Amino acid sequence: MKSYLSTRICSLACAAALIAASGCATTASNPKDPFEGFNRAMFAVNEGLDVVVKPVAQGYDNFAPLPVKVIVGNFFGNLWDAWTAVNNALQGKGGEAVSDVGRVLINSTLGIGGTFDIASEMGLTKHSEDFGQTLGKWGVGEGPFFFWPIIGPRTTRDTFGWMVDTYVDPVWHAWITDDMALRNIMVGTRYINLRATLLPADKVVDDAAFDRYTYIRDAYLQHRRNEVFDGELPHQVPDYEPSD
């Protein structure tokens, strides 16, 4: 079972593929992106950093045995399931929150520290919830779109949500053990594993997009709306009309 973050990336790739299939061009101006000049500059920074990161991720994807990649994804996904449970509870989804707690308890024990996803085999579905989604459920608006270095695309709402997610992230708080080396190894391993899961999405974007920036931006915004409303988007008038 993939980790929480890698599942989100794969979902974003699917959203991009849906945009391509619908024939929508992504070259039109988007009013949700009033700082496009800044965002394109940050996108270029990320593309530059990826010249180094992507080959490492490709090496990991090509040479790491599949069981190792599964174990890595399961381990980090189990760490995040606890925060997913909190967000489901904050969103009023008690049944899913209880299921998430059950997943953590089962996978942390029978799954040997989360390295094996026993809970999914027992029928407990893995959910993907973060604090940005919770803010959306509470009625907080998206706000302007930003493309940040390293962390990538975010709405204003999701930027604040990401700050909270990072604050409670047990991987980043591994410094509590006074072992900075352990924290850095865990952060680096998770990041490379995450980037490796994005490799299939690279091909989707490269094949379908004339402008990678607008394509990724529009796919992200569409996908996040879908996540906040759990796939049941309210009827609304489009805030802009893409060009043909």
**Fraction of residues in H or I helices:** 55-70%
Instruction: Tell me the Rg in angstroms.
Output: 18 Å
Please describe the biggest sheet, giving its number of strands, its sense, and whether it closes into a barrel.
2 strands, antiparallel
Return residue spans where pLDDT drops below 50 for at least 5 consecutive residues: 1-28
Strand portion, in percent? Answer: under 5%
Sequence of secondary-structure elements: HHHHHHEEHHHH
Distance between the termini: 39 Å
Give the overall silhouette. globular
Strand order of the largest sheet: 1-2
How many separate structural domains? 1
Estimate the mean pLDDT confidence: 86
Count the helices. How many? 10
Helical/strand content category? mainly alpha
| Total beta strands | 2
Family: Belongs to the MlaA family.
InterPro entries: MlaA
Protein name: VacJ family lipoprotein
Keywords: Lipoprotein, Signal
Per-chain topology:
Blueprint lengths: L3 H19 L13 H28 L2 H25 L3 H16 L8 H4 L9 H7 L7 E4 L3 E4 H13 L11 H18 L1 H10 L3 H17 L16
Antiparallel strand pairs: 1-2
Helix pairs in contact: 1-8, 1-9, 1-10, 2-8, 3-4, 6-7
Protein name: VacJ family lipoprotein
Keywords: Lipoprotein, Signal
Pfam family, one: MlaA
